[in-house]
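Message: A physicist's question: would you kindly supply an amino acid chain plus fold tokens?
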Amino acid sequence: MPYLDQFMLQWKAYLMQQLSLCGLSYVASDAGGSLDIKANSLAYFAWLRTHSIELAGIDEERDSVAWVMLEKQLKALANKAENGTFDLVSKLHLEESQIQIHLNFSYDDEQHIVYVS
């Protein structure tokens, strides 16, 4: 499975947990996959924005910016992971399936973005 898909699934798991904490449910559609992840992420960002004193006055366009920034981070990390995995496999004689990458997500309520590490 490509790293971007793996990282999106990690975000989805985190997102489902966070939505639950907010009293919201993850909504799945017939489209499924990345469209559902994006739609639920935007719903989560909207909830965060509307329930934060620091973000009063910020409009819903900022939710789309938060999604684009998250998606760019995940793509960049996926590219790094693919290159790094190739190096590890060739230098340490590991199998790619032995390498696991777990991401951490942290929400910055002042910037209204999610950082990925």
About this structure: The chain has one domain: 3-116. The chain has a mean pLDDT of 91.
